[in-house]
């Protein structure tokens, strides 16, 4: 009887250890992915701190802010491209998608407006999901709601760098920017990034290879007649 109890106890311990191992393997974070996500948010915040209110700066300082913002923007875009590949290819990519969903859904360090840095990425990932109830679809709906609340502010800042970016209960833009300025200043970002010319984007990146035209490139009082060609130039042929 004694040996039976020992064998039973040993079996229970072995099963418990296996369950813990598989639970950790399933829920454990990919630290490289987490570092990349945090880096994208940090660059996004720095761009906002640089460019929000930049219209009031003198011409030389504003030009420096734009050049620095472009450098930050394309660094962020390269990171997003790398993350996209990491989430769609390779072993364990579905677990990494789940990690991204948890990050954007429950990380209390993120403001609503921070999440807009991932709008295009979530849009791409959700586009391949057939089930409307998939968590990515719900997350995309949430981000689009946030975008609606901040459309004017986000467009004003990020239209200069070739990208697009809830209701009244969400935090206000001024409060969001004020919170960022507690941790970052325009002077700090300028000193960190410097004034080097921004790197030309790859053709596969949004805004690359001059396939898109943006309003900041036109003279004052220019009027343009346009049509909605969906997310980017890559989709033009299917909507033409």
List keywords for this structure.
about 240 residues, mainly alpha, about 60% helix, elongated
Total strands: the figure is 0
Helix and strand string, N-terminal first?
HHHHHHHHH
Structural class, judged by helices and strands? mainly alpha
Helix proportion of residues, in percent?
Answer: 55-70%
Strand content: under 5%
Largest sheet: none
Instruction: Give Rg in angstroms.
Output: 22 Å
Total count of domains: 1
Weakly predicted, low-confidence segments: 20-26, 164-169
The coarse overall form would be elongated
Notes on the protein architecture:
By secondary structure, the chain is an all-alpha fold. It has one domain (about 30-205). It has helices spanning about 1-25, 30-50, 60-90, 95-105, 120-125, 135-160, 175-185, 185-195, 235-240. Helix 2 (about 30-50) runs antiparallel to helix 3 and helix 3 (about 60-90) crosses helix 8. The chain is elongated, with a radius of gyration of 22 Å. It starts with a helix and ends with a helix.
């Amino acid at each position: 009887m004694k040996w039976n109890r020992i064998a039973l106890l040993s079996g229970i311990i072995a099963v418990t250890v296996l369950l813990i191992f598989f639970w950790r393997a399933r829920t454990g974070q990919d630290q490289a992915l987490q570092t990349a996500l945090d880096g994208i948010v940090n660059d996004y915040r720095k761009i906002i701190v640089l460019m929000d209110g930049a219209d009031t700066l003198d011409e030389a300082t504003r030009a420096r802010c734009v050049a620095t913002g472009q450098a930050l923007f394309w660094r962020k875009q390269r990171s997003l491209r790398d993350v996209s590949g990491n989430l769609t290819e390779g072993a364990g990519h579905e677990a990494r998608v789940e990690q991204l969903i948890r990050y954007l859904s429950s990380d209390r360090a993120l403001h609503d407006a921070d999440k807009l840095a991932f709008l295009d990425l979530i849009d791409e990932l959700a586009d391949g999901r057939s089930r409307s109830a998939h968590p990515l679809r719900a997350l995309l709906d949430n981000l689009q709601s946030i975008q609606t609340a901040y459309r004017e502010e986000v467009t004003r800042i990020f239209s200069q760098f070739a990208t697009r970016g809830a209701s009244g209960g969400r935090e206000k833009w001024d409060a969001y920017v004020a919170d960022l300025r507690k941790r970052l200043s325009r002077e700090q970002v300028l000193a960190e990034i410097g004034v080097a010319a921004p790197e030309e984007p790859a053709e596969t990146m949004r805004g690359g290879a001059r396939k898109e035209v943006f309003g900041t490139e036109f003279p004052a009082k220019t009027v343009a007649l346009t049509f909605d060609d969906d997310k980017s130039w890559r989709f033009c042929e299917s909507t033409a």
